[in-house]
Amino acid sequence: MIEHGVPEAERLGSMPSGGDPSPQTPSRSRFAFRNVAALLLAGITLVLGYGVVQSWSVRLERIVVRYQSLPPAARGLTVLQISDLHSRSSLWRNREVAEMLSGLSADLMVVTGDFRQAGGSPDVAVQGASIVVDAVRERMPVYAVSGNHDLQPMMQQLSQKGIVVLDNTVQNIRPGVWLAGWNPYLRRHPSLEAVLRSVPNDDFVILLAHSPDVVLESASARAGLILCGHTHGGQMRLPGLRPWLTLTRLGTKYFHGLYPWGAGFLHINPGIGTTMIPLRMYAPPEITHLTLMDAGPETGRMTAMSDE
Questions:
Q1: Angstrom distance (rounded) from CA 28 to CA 274
Q2: Does residue 137 sit in helix, strand or coil?
Q3: Would the pTM of this model clear 0.85, i.e. be above it?
Q4: β-strands 78-82, 59-67: how paired?
Q5: Contact (CB, 8 A) for 135 and 98
Q6: What residues does each domain of the chain span?
Q7: Is 127 exposed, middle or buried (0-12, 13-18, 19+ CB in 10 A)?
Q8: What's the pLDDT at 14?
């Protein structure tokens, strides 16, 4: 007898000796599941691996910041920013940064804190900072603020290496243009309002702070440009998504890049080094080159160009 085009003898021949049918569907399903699982695992490994490789080398990011009304003295000012060196004993990353900086020019360079690895050696931090600063010191001044992992004796040593440490102080760099630094990690520190008290109200202020939480201080509204680090750009994150953690009170919305803030801008540099896990994923280390320009009231507030 023929059933659905299959001879009865052929159907019977496929039965085990006990005579009961043994469907093939479960084994085929397991095989298909294993294939899908293997492909999924390979895909995840590829995505994560690419994220690590893509974040291995330091990149250069060029940003042109255009203001609707920028004081003439600040127009054309160029700033190099690095952050979160977190120097390790090998110092290979510091040498990579120094090599890149040797080919760059700007009016000044700023380092927004965390020279030292968490729990690391202050001597290694000073040595690592010296390697980086030596690449630019003869061509531009270098300013810095302390991060939450930096120690005051160490910062004093850095000031002897040619870095102007602006912890809770200000400095006039051009007529009508000021650099200000805030360090809230000291046991006793002045308010940001007190730090800025000597700056004329109409002058342009570039504010350096390690954490972007500085914007929660009302006096930060006086700054036309706020330069920070601390977040590591999330350090380990998935493409197109916010990071899981930034260790700031601002949360994960503000973790890397340039943001309009008040009458000015906030820029968060993703840093150079790492903490805890010595890896980055979709959060490459970065040197930022910022140029301040006046765009006039009829144009947008900012433009950004990337040069990787």
A1: 46
A2: coil
A3: no
A4: unpaired
A5: yes
A6: 55-294
A7: middle
A8: 46
